Automatic annotation (TrEMBL):
<keyword id="KW-0482">Metalloprotease</keyword>
<keyword id="KW-0862">Zinc</keyword>
<dbReference type="Pfam" id="PF01435">
    <property type="entry name" value="Peptidase_M48"/>
</dbReference>
<dbReference type="GO" id="GO:0005743">
    <property type="term" value="C:mitochondrial inner membrane"/>
</dbReference>
<dbReference type="GO" id="GO:0034982">
    <property type="term" value="P:mitochondrial protein processing"/>
</dbReference>
<dbReference type="GO" id="GO:0046872">
    <property type="term" value="F:metal ion binding"/>
</dbReference>
<protein>
    <recommendedName>
        <fullName>Peptidase M48 domain-containing protein</fullName>
    </recommendedName>
</protein>
<dbReference type="InterPro" id="IPR001915">
    <property type="entry name" value="Peptidase_M48"/>
</dbReference>
<dbReference type="GO" id="GO:0006515">
    <property type="term" value="P:protein quality control for misfolded or incompletely synthesized proteins"/>
</dbReference>
<keyword id="KW-0479">Metal-binding</keyword>
<dbReference type="InterPro" id="IPR051156">
    <property type="entry name" value="Mito/Outer_Membr_Metalloprot"/>
</dbReference>
<comment type="similarity">
    <text>Belongs to the peptidase M48 family.</text>
</comment>
<keyword id="KW-0645">Protease</keyword>
<feature type="domain" description="Peptidase M48">
    <location>
        <begin position="56"/>
        <end position="98"/>
    </location>
</feature>
<keyword id="KW-0378">Hydrolase</keyword>
<dbReference type="GO" id="GO:0004222">
    <property type="term" value="F:metalloendopeptidase activity"/>
</dbReference>
Length: 104
């Protein structure tokens, strides 16, 4: 009896967590809700951006030391943008744009 109840429970869980993929129309099993998936994506995004900021700052520090202009107060900003770019403003303000990869 317990085996039948467990099987029904697992089957119900499986069926209620199926979704249709928009591009292909195929059904797939998703063990987490779209809301949970979005929260995880935001956390992952923040982690990646933090790592990118650390990397950019390390590179900028090496360039600043090599330039001999260490007397300025340098600030490095990492900006999320689909367009690759970087520039420096007077006063030691360095801006580096990240490039987001969009999967089609």
């Amino acid at each position: 009896m317990m085996l039948a109840g467990g099987t029904i429970g697992v089957g119900t869980y499986y069926i209620t967590h199926l979704e249709t993929v928009p591009m292909t129309g195929r059904r797939r099993f998703m063990s987490i809700s779209p809301e949970s998936e979005e929260k995880l994506a935001k956390i992952s995004y923040q982690s990646v951006m933090q790592e990118a900021s650390i990397f950019v700052r390390r590179v900028a520090e090496r360039i600043i030391r090599a330039s001999g202009m260490t007397d300025l107060h340098w600030e490095v900003f990492v900006i999320d943008s689909p367009i690759p770019n970087a520039f420096v403003l007077p006063g030691g303000k360095v801006f580096v744009f990240t490039v987001r990869i969009v999967w089609l």
